[in-house]
């Protein structure tokens, strides 16, 4: 856990520019991965279905939104719609016997394409106005999906309206991905790859250009950054992440493509996740997802637990009320104490240990 | 300051994780709660052979649909208490785990898993379309009954295709078919040249009955007018202008939900569309919608019911005397008897009936599979015998291994200024057309999900 | 030989004639100072050259090539680097990253190779890093290379901005009041850096500056703007003695100097 920089000297820029510069950072990441690999051997169905798999799949979406909004500064209220595009595309491809991985990637690419189109207004407008423009995606896309999907899905009408589709069971190189255990590992692997991609993007030319545009678009342009190109790229890549996460949500979490899940509410939640987690922070995307998706569940369970331990059966309505109050209070307290989000908290902890035990 | 906050948050998380690690919170068993009450005398065995039978329940008393979710949840919880006061199921208490989900599917899925983690879940009540979709394949695997009364997957009326899904109430198709039948009667037996408009939320739920009307309209000669409203349906003025000034339909069928319904009531009043020409599906307009708009201005508005509203039933009276008179009711007394409240009572009641029937055959311990077997033997007679009074609320339900709907009878109920009152007997219509739709949809579901039918 | 020329540049904002037929010639290897009272049009001229404003009339030529009306990023690619009067660093990036953004326009790796940190991207990142470190050494800001630029005081911000412009490997450098808001010591440092850039890197510089001491010390030629017109041009000494200039601008200042 000790994050020390002292005593570490890099003799080449290559090692100094490695993904994790400090051996202990490398070690803690490795440790985290080990935990991620060991957990499923102890996890119950509950942990898989209610905690782990949603966390993994939603985090991919959060990462994408953070690249787009946190790094590149392009606010999007249409993220859930892009998730839907990915989820449905992948489902339909799977029905037409496209292999699982190809379906996921193509789902991502389709979302990227659609995201790109909805990102075009970013060339002219920004901030709140752009947010309103992306809101259009949230209305247009579900509508389009409900019109198009029944036409291309042979089993349409199986479930109400024909735009709700159960995907076939995906298989990876001939092996069915069926059990929760398998779903977990496939999601984990994809999340890890997507995380590494995101880290690479933000530490290189593209990521610097994004932040430059976010922080000072005039200066970025004067330095030769093609603003429109990089804004659109942010929309495309952010939506690609959304699409991939949508595919995994449909295959491994919901088990069904239902357009109602990908509503404005989800878009707002994801936006909340990156703000709470930390705008422009990869690890913040993880924290933020946990905060927004998992914390309410933890709260609900612990409040029920405390209520019962005190010996009376509390109405779910009261628990929900307390849950909302506590959650809201935590958000407010957090943003007051640390406006830069949980990632900054984490940074402070690391900074504290950086010079440990000689902190002053 | 920061360190303090940080450590508080960490501490809190630790507690939360510890609680979650147990999979669920250990609820005080309903027997403990009922200690000293008549339950003791009623149960022949002092120590039940099973701790409890869990009915997972995705409730929502908060969020955008909290207004409609509340009476239903209260009905279910009150019925749970009443059943346990009367000795539960063969001495085993039932445990309705009402977990607040705010009508969000991820929370609904979590509620399902939390209830399942007890190892004693026999049934789950999703009370949301999305959650029904998500838990249905799980239920196949877990062999747990999913009860979605008059919502969710209509194809689940086909019990052979959906062994664990039960509507135990009419589908949307049966509902609209019955509405058309009733309108036909009002029009003196013929719909020739009549205009019938469908005002629906433009989502899967709203659009679901359009295929039925496409079949019925040419057959009966009515003109079908479609009025889609984009989700969440708070902007309807354009549609209502068309209704009032351009089309002037003779009747309007509503397929709305939540806040879109009071909005529609307001618009109808604004453009002067006659309230008594509005017939909603099961979910709109319900009593809470009318109250949210204006009870006087809504007189005459109708919807169809699968559970009779009102308090003039022994089971509801018992709830009032045993619970509300003693200050133990789950909610507000004036919501008792609302249609949504009675549906909550019915949901738990019919599951209890299924459990009792299964108990006669198998004895303790029961599980989801046995419960499904029991539910398939619900008839008006068995429901009367085992349903703890809910047969009075829905007297025409006959389930079987083939039919998880129960024949599809509905009542038309009308708002009289203070409550919805039945104005018809139990009616149904156009069963052939409805059955064809169910069959077709079930077949497609089977094709779409071969892996569910492998074993 | 002229490397950069502006010919007869006009631009107006509403009723304000910001530039009215300004000519400018920057020769290879020289430092040209542009001076003039507040609102004279100095920054506007720089904006016209760097493509941020499109002149209403007139041409801008870089090495004889017409770059008038090109978008700013294309002008940057053509070889014009600049800094801003009000500093425009990227707050969320570290000093090192700020400088590396400067290298953006001559880097080749696309998003795919960046995402994979593949061969080209990795090689290029390391190459740019080495180059950026040279600039950092040159500007003596090694100690803050990993500090977020938003946390820096003005003096260092101006240095980072200079470094960023240098990282563009420009053919011409435009500096808009690089010493504004600095204390005497910092000004001396900055003057030294500008001279070094000019001498060691052979980079021609246009320098907008109010501090006459600095202008007279380091510039080869001076051009004076007033109300959007060029009123004088020549060596520092010539300009200092020009009565028009004294009248318009220097009179008050020279007493203060
Ligand atoms: N974008 C713009 N819109 C309107 N007017 C402008 C714009 N840019 C410059 N001006 C006007 O043009 C004139 C010249 O301004 P400029 O900023 O070029 O002056 P300057 O010589 O740089 O002065 P300073 O020494 O204060 O920096 C001013 O009157 C200014 O108000
Ligand atoms: Mg200026």
Looking at this protein, list some descriptive labels:
heterotrimer; A: 360 residues; mainly alpha; ABC transporter involved in vitamin B12 uptake, BtuC; two-stranded antiparallel ribbon; 14 helices; C: 257 residues; alpha/beta; four-stranded antiparallel β-sheet; 10 strands; binds magnesium ion
Task: Write a compact overview of the structure shown.
The complex is a heterotrimer of chains A (360), B (455) and C (257). With 360 residues, chain A is mainly α.
Largest sheet of chain C: 6 strands, mixed
Please list the strands of the largest sheet of chain C in the order they lie side by side: 6-7-8-3-9-10
**In terms of per-residue confidence, which ranges of chain C show pLDDT below 50 for 5 or more consecutive residues?**
none
Main β-sheet of chain B, in a few words?
A: 7 strands, mixed
The hetero molecules present are: adenosine-5'-triphosphate, magnesium ion
Instruction: Let me know the CATH homologous superfamily of one domain in chain B.
Output: Response regulator
The helical percent of chain C reads: 40-55%
Count of discrete alpha- or pi-helical segments spanning 4 or more residues of chain C: 10
End-to-end separation of chain C in angstroms reads 33 Å
CATH top level class name of one domain in chain B: Alpha Beta
| CATH architectural label of one domain in chain B | 3-Layer(aba) Sandwich
Please give the count of helices of chain B: 17
* N-to-C series of helices and strands of chain B: HHHEHEHEHEEHEHHEHEHEHEHHHHEEH
Query: And the CATH topology of one domain in chain B?
Result: Rossmann fold
The share of residues in helices of chain B is: 40-55%
Query: How many structural units, i.e. domains of chain C?
Result: 2
Q: Could you report the average pLDDT of chain C, rounded to the nearest whole number?
A: 91
CATH class of the largest domain in chain C: Alpha Beta
Low-confidence stretches of chain B: 17-45
Query: What is the 3D form of chain B?
Result: globular
What share of residues are in beta strands of chain C? 15-25%
